[in-house]
Amino acid sequence: MKGFLNYYETFNKSLEEFVKKNPSKRLYDPINYLLNLGGKRLRPILLLMSADAFGKKHKKAIHAALAVEIFHNFTLMHDDIMDEAPLRRGKLTVHKKWNLNSGILSGDAMLIQVYQILQNYDKDVLKKLLKILNKTALQVCEGQQFDLDFEYQDNVTHSQYIEMIRLKTAVLLGCSLKMGAIIGGASKDNGKIIYDYGVLLGLAFQIQDDYLDVFGNANSFGKQIGGDIVENKKTILFHQSMDKGSREEQKELQSWFSTKTQKKFTDKKVKEVKKLFEMTGAKESSLNLVEMYTKKAFKKLNDINLPLKSKKIFESFGLQLMDRKF
Q1: CA–CA gap between residue 238 and residue 230 (Å, rounded)
Q2: If you count DSSP H runs as helices and E runs as strands, how many of each does the chain have, helices first?
Q3: Does residue 287 surpass a pLDDT of 60?
Q4: Domain membership of residue 165 as a residue range
């Protein structure tokens, strides 16, 4: 199997070629802008890794990798609109740089491009790819709806929150790995195991994202630090604080999350809530959850029918993900 950097470079070259082929028209300008903002390219790399691990077919998986990354960015474009987010990867979000209608319409066009790209596969492979992608796409929408609902619900349990991030984020990582496995010719059992590995890794990834939203570095994180707090998003840090904090700390935290934040109080709110996350032990326990889900993902690899060398590559990727600071 190739190294992570090689997968990244191979994919980015293909993505650059895709962007160049997009017409220079107003519909496509926001698409090209978002795709050119960079990113970890986590999902396409996992897809290429999986195709290589099961059949040394990463070159045949390029189209699927493009489809997954474009789908992911489509969801980001529309999520940013719903969240009223000002920044994406350190730059203005599409709806801020252009306008709301451009963000909606260009996002719709991206979704259509996903299915156009997948038409490069023969009908048998295409049918399998569409089955897992369509299921995942609906799950992502379900997760986003839960996320929106939770902003207005007083009582959201820890398990409900985990289910939301499983749907909104984790299943797409599992989908990416399974699509790669399909192209690589993996057995049905191996396809399911690598999918489960991806979902568990996705849970660890999102919990760490919640952590970095509050305790990350603003320059490297690429998003507004404390944005989740300002938007009253009850992330894993909120739930850990409510589970572990005193009655007074719980009451104070709920008070901060009960009203929409006025701009002049934004900095104070982020500072005080961040302090509560530290005092209640939520900061540390959230990192422990990242480690727990990562280790669960690694256990899945024990059951997969792959050479030890290939399993170690997937494990190494997970470790790098767990140690990220951005």
Answers
A1: 13
A2: 17, 2
A3: yes
A4: 4-322
Strand partners, 91: 88
What are the residues whose beta carbons fall under 8 Å from the beta carbon of 95, sequence distance 6 or more? 77, 80, 81, 102, 103
CA distance 54 to 73: 27
Reference 55, options 318, 306, 312; nearest CA is 306
Q: Tell me the C-alpha distance between 201 and 198, whole Å.
A: 5
Distance between CA atoms of 93 and 84, rounded to whole angstroms?
9
Is 0.90 topped by the overall pTM? yes
* Domain of residue 283, CATH code: 1.10.600.10
Q: What is the pLDDT of residues 22-60, one digit of tens each?
A: 987 899 999 999 999 988 899 999 999 999 999 999 999
Hunting for tokens 């190739």 — which residue is that? 2
User: Does residue 286 sit in helix, strand or coil?
Assistant: helix
Cα–chain-centroid distance for residue 322?
14
Q: Provide the terminal-to-terminal Cα distance of the chain, rounded to the nearest Å.
A: 26
How would you classify residue 308: left for phi > 0, otherwise alpha for psi between -120 and 50, otherwise beta? alpha
Radius of gyration of the chain measured on its C-alpha atoms: 20
Output the CA angle 253-255-259, nearest 5 degrees.
120
Tokens representing residue 227 in the block: 């944005």
CA nearest neighbour of 283 among 201, 202, 199, 213: 213
Cα angle, residue 76 at apex, residues 227 and 29 outer, rounded to 5°? 120
Best CA proximity match to 174, nearest among 205, 147, 219: 205
The Cα 92–Cα 231 span in angstroms is 18
b or e along 90-114 (b: 16 or more beta carbons within 10 Å of the residue's beta carbon)? ebebbbbebeeebbeebbeebeebb
- Helix, strand or coil, per DSSP, at residue 89: coil
pLDDT of residue 222: 54
Burial of 249 (0-12, 13-18, 19+ CB in 10 A): middle
| Number of domains making up the chain | 1
